C-alpha cells in the first residue's frame, strides 16, 4: 500500500482539468479555467481543516497555513506550486499508467503507435526500471508541471496532519496561476503569505535542486516595410520580411537554445509573423550572468539602431521587457535554504543534483521580493509536450523531501 494514499489519485484528477494559461490575456488569472481550479483547491484546503485559507486579492494565489505543533519559535516554511499548464494541447487529458516499467521497452502512447516514448530518443527512461510511470496518450501534455507539485504539497500536509509526532513549525502553502506565461508571481504578496523561507516544488527529475536561474527578457520587434509591385521595386521596396530575416542573421549564430547548454545564454526567436508591408517578431533573451544579460540587450538594440541608420529612418522598433532575474544573486547572500534542502534530500536517500536551471521559476521573482525561494524537484520529464511523463516513486520522494525540510527547520 502506498505511503501517501491520495498522492496519485489527486494527481490524476488534477491533470484532467484544463488549466492552460493565456498569454494574450490581461486578467489575473489569465483564464477563467484557472480561477475555477484555484477555487476547487481552496475548497479542498478548507476541507482539510487548514487555517487562514483564502485567495489573495492582488495575486489570485490561494494561501493556507498548517499551524506549528511545537512551542519554540522556528522559521515558517512555505511551499509553492503553480496550477497552470504550458502552451500545448491541455484539453481532454487522458493519463496512462505504465506499471513496473522495464527500463528499455518502447512505450506506445497512442493506439496507432504514432507517438512513443523510446529510450533511444529519451534516454532518461532507463532510470525508471521497476517504477510506475504516468504518461500522456500522445495527444496532450500531461501537466506534471506543476500539478505534480500541487499534489505533493497537499500529500505532505495531509501526512503531517495524520502524524502529529512529526514536529514542525508553521507550514505555509501557496498555489498560483500563470507561471507558464511569466506573470504569475508579479503580484505575489510576501507579507500575506507569511513565510520566512520558501520553496517552489516545480523542478524536474529526482534530486533536482535549483537556486540559480536565467536572467530573462522578452523582446518584440516591429518592422515597417514599403510594399510596391515587384516589377517596380528597384530602390523603392523595403520588404519587412527580409528585414526581419536580416535582423535575425545579425545575431550570433551559435547563441540559440538548440546550440547552447549549462550557463550559456541565448537569443530565441519564438514568433515571426510578417508581410512585405509589416512584420512582427518575438524573442526571449536569456543569460545567467547579469552583465552578459545586459550586453545581450544592448546588442539587440544596437542591431536595430544600425539598421535604422542604414535606412535613414526608423523602420525597426524594438521593445524589451525584463521578465525575471537570477535568484542566485539573492540566495548566495544566505545559502541556508539550499543547504537545508540538500540535507533533506540526503536524509531520505535522494542524491541532490544542484545546477543552474535554464529557465526560471516563480521563485525567481519571489526571491527578489525578499523571500528566498529555491526550487526542488517535482518529478516531471519532457515537460510541456506530448512526451511528458512522471514516475510515481519520484513523486513520493518529493513528498518525503518536503516533510524532511519541515522537520529540519523545526530542529534548527
From TrEMBL:
<feature type="binding site">
    <location>
        <position position="145"/>
    </location>
    <ligand>
        <name>Zn(2+) 2</name>
    </ligand>
</feature>
<dbReference type="GO" id="GO:0045148">
    <property type="term" value="F:tripeptide aminopeptidase activity"/>
</dbReference>
<feature type="active site" description="Proton acceptor">
    <location>
        <position position="179"/>
    </location>
</feature>
<protein>
    <recommendedName>
        <fullName>Peptidase T</fullName>
        <ecNumber>3.4.11.4</ecNumber>
    </recommendedName>
</protein>
<feature type="binding site">
    <location>
        <position position="145"/>
    </location>
    <ligand>
        <name>Zn(2+) 1</name>
    </ligand>
</feature>
<dbReference type="GO" id="GO:0006508">
    <property type="term" value="P:proteolysis"/>
</dbReference>
<feature type="active site">
    <location>
        <position position="84"/>
    </location>
</feature>
<keyword id="KW-0963">Cytoplasm</keyword>
<dbReference type="GO" id="GO:0008270">
    <property type="term" value="F:zinc ion binding"/>
</dbReference>
<keyword id="KW-0645">Protease</keyword>
<keyword id="KW-0479">Metal-binding</keyword>
<dbReference type="GO" id="GO:0005829">
    <property type="term" value="C:cytosol"/>
</dbReference>
<feature type="binding site">
    <location>
        <position position="82"/>
    </location>
    <ligand>
        <name>Zn(2+) 1</name>
    </ligand>
</feature>
<feature type="binding site">
    <location>
        <position position="180"/>
    </location>
    <ligand>
        <name>Zn(2+) 2</name>
    </ligand>
</feature>
<feature type="domain" description="Peptidase M20 dimerisation">
    <location>
        <begin position="211"/>
        <end position="309"/>
    </location>
</feature>
<dbReference type="InterPro" id="IPR036264">
    <property type="entry name" value="Bact_exopeptidase_dim_dom"/>
</dbReference>
<comment type="similarity">
    <text>Belongs to the peptidase M20B family.</text>
</comment>
<dbReference type="Pfam" id="PF01546">
    <property type="entry name" value="Peptidase_M20"/>
</dbReference>
<dbReference type="InterPro" id="IPR001261">
    <property type="entry name" value="ArgE/DapE_CS"/>
</dbReference>
<dbReference type="GO" id="GO:0043171">
    <property type="term" value="P:peptide catabolic process"/>
</dbReference>
<dbReference type="InterPro" id="IPR002933">
    <property type="entry name" value="Peptidase_M20"/>
</dbReference>
<keyword id="KW-0482">Metalloprotease</keyword>
<keyword id="KW-0862">Zinc</keyword>
<dbReference type="Pfam" id="PF07687">
    <property type="entry name" value="M20_dimer"/>
</dbReference>
<comment type="function">
    <text>Cleaves the N-terminal amino acid of tripeptides.</text>
</comment>
<feature type="binding site">
    <location>
        <position position="384"/>
    </location>
    <ligand>
        <name>Zn(2+) 2</name>
    </ligand>
</feature>
<feature type="binding site">
    <location>
        <position position="202"/>
    </location>
    <ligand>
        <name>Zn(2+) 1</name>
    </ligand>
</feature>
<dbReference type="InterPro" id="IPR011650">
    <property type="entry name" value="Peptidase_M20_dimer"/>
</dbReference>
<keyword id="KW-0031">Aminopeptidase</keyword>
<dbReference type="InterPro" id="IPR010161">
    <property type="entry name" value="Peptidase_M20B"/>
</dbReference>
<dbReference type="GO" id="GO:0008237">
    <property type="term" value="F:metallopeptidase activity"/>
</dbReference>
<keyword id="KW-0378">Hydrolase</keyword>
Amino acid at each position: 500500500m502506498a505511503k501517501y494514499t491520495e498522492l496519485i489519485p489527486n494527481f490524476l484528477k488534477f491533470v484532467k482539468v484544463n488549466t492552460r494559461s493565456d498569454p494574450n490575456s490581461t486578467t489575473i488569472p489569465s483564464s477563467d479555467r484557472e480561477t475555477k481550479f484555484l477555487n476547487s483547491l481552496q475548497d479542498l484546503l478548507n476541507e482539510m481543516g487548514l487555517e487562514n485559507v483564502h485567495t489573495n486579492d492582488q495575486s489570485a494565489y490561494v494561501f493556507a497555513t498548517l499551524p506549528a505543533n511545537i512551542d519554540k519559535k522556528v522559521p515558517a516554511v512555505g511551499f509553492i506550486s503553480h496550477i497552470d499548464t504550458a502552451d500545448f494541447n491541455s484539453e481532454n487529458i487522458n493519463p496512462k499508467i505504465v506499471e513496473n516499467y522495464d527500463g528499455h521497452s518502447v512505450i506506445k502512447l497512442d493506439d496507432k503507435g504514432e507517438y512513443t516514448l523510446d529510450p533511444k530518443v529519451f534516454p532518461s527512461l532507463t532510470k525508471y526500471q521497476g517504477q510506475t510511470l504516468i504518461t500522456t496518450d500522445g495527444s496532450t501534455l500531461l501537466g506534471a508541471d506543476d500539478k505534480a507539485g500541487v499534489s505533493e504539497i497537499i500529500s505532505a500536509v495531509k501526512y503531517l496532519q495524520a502524524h502529529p509526532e512529526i514536529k514542525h513549525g508553521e507550514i505555509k502553502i501557496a498555489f498560483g496561476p500563470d507561471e507558464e506565461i511569466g506573470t504569475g508571481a508579479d503580484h505575489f504578496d510576501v507579507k500575506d503569505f507569511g513565510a520566512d523561507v520558501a520553496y517552489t516544488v516545480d523542478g524536474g527529475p529526482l534530486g533536482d535542486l535549483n537556486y540559480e536561474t536565467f536572467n530573462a527578457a522578452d523582446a518584440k520587434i516591429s518592422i515597417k516595410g514599403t510594399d510596391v509591385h515587384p516589377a517596380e521595386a528597384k530602390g523603392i521596396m523595403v520588404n519587412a520580411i527580409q528585414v526581419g530575416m536580416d535582423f535575425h542573421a545579425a545575431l550570433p549564430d551559435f547563441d540559440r537554445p538548440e546550440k547552447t547548454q549549462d550557463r550559456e545564454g541565448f537569443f530565441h526567436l519564438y514568433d515571426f509573423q510578417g508581410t512585405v508591408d509589416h512584420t512582427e517578431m518575438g524573442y526571449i533573451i536569456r543569460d545567467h550572468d547579469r552583465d552578459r544579460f545586459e550586453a545581450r540587450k544592448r546588442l539587440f538594440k544596437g542591431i536595430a539602431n544600425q539598421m535604422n541608420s542604414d535606412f535613414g529612418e526608423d523602420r525597426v522598433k524594438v521593445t524589451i521587457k525584463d521578465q525575471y532575474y537570477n535568484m542566485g544573486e539573492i540566495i548566495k547572500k544566505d545559502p541556508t535554504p539550499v543547504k537545508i534542502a540538500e540535507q533533506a534530500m540526503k536524509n531520505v536517500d535522494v542524491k541532490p543534483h544542484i545546477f543552474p536551471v535554464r529557465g526560471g521559476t516563480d521563485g525567481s521573482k519571489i526571491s527578489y521580493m525578499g523571500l528566498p525561494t529555491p526550487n526542488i524537484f517535482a518529478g516531471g520529464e519532457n515537460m510541456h509536450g506530448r512526451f511528458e511523463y512522471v514516475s510515481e516513486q519520484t513523486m513520493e520522494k518529493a513528498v518525503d523531501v518536503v516533510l524532511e525540510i519541515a522537520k529540519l527547520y523545526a530542529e534548527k
